[in-house]
Amino acid sequence: MFSFLVNAEGGLTAAGYAVCVAAGIALFALAIYFAGKNSEKSRMSTKQLIFCAASIALAFVTSYIKIFEMPWGGSVTLCSMLFIVMVANWYGVKTGVLVGLAYGILQFIQEPYVLSLFQVCCDYVLAFAALGVAGFFSRSPKGLVKGYIAAVLARGAFHALGGYLYWMSYMPDNFPQSLRSVYPIVYNYSFLLVEALITAAVISVPAVASALNQVKRTAVS
Questions:
Q1: Backbone angles phi, psi at 77, to 5 degrees
Q2: pLDDT for 105-143, tens place per residue?
Q3: pTM as predicted
Q4: Strand 75-77 to 66-69 pairing
């Protein structure tokens, strides 16, 4: 069914890349639309466009700066998830989810691998869209830190689900059956929580927290 989008090695064909780019642009446009809807002044949509685009760009660039890389996928990056979480913190859950979706498609284009449509949804689409849940904590004390932790936990849940349903079939035959349901959880949260601890520590530094608050005031003013 998807042979024109995916090649035999599980990567994307030219048509697959074109579809992903088009989908990313469409989702980003929706994010800007919802950002404008949530703004008290519609004229601020241009500013929101700039901040959303800059956040996606920073997230994408820092995703290449890997402190540690896992053998079967996944890595500890230089706070790449933070930039998507910040959008959710500024503009709400809807915009955060849609920006996360657009970013997930960029991640898929960056390192595509397809086992099934649902696996792609778990590892790329839903996992990164889940970062938008950070918006639920935007008005609470230390909302950025709380939202970030919640976002990481939500992203990890989708990675673990994809690992359990699909990736575990690639494990050796002698892999203990008793660990099959636990291993995807341990594997995925091992690198996500390390990055979460590093990022949470950085954004909790008073000088950094003050700077991020100033950025937020500029983004939403």
A1: -105, 180
A2: 888 888 777 777 788 888 898 999 999 999 999 999 999
A3: 0.80
A4: antiparallel
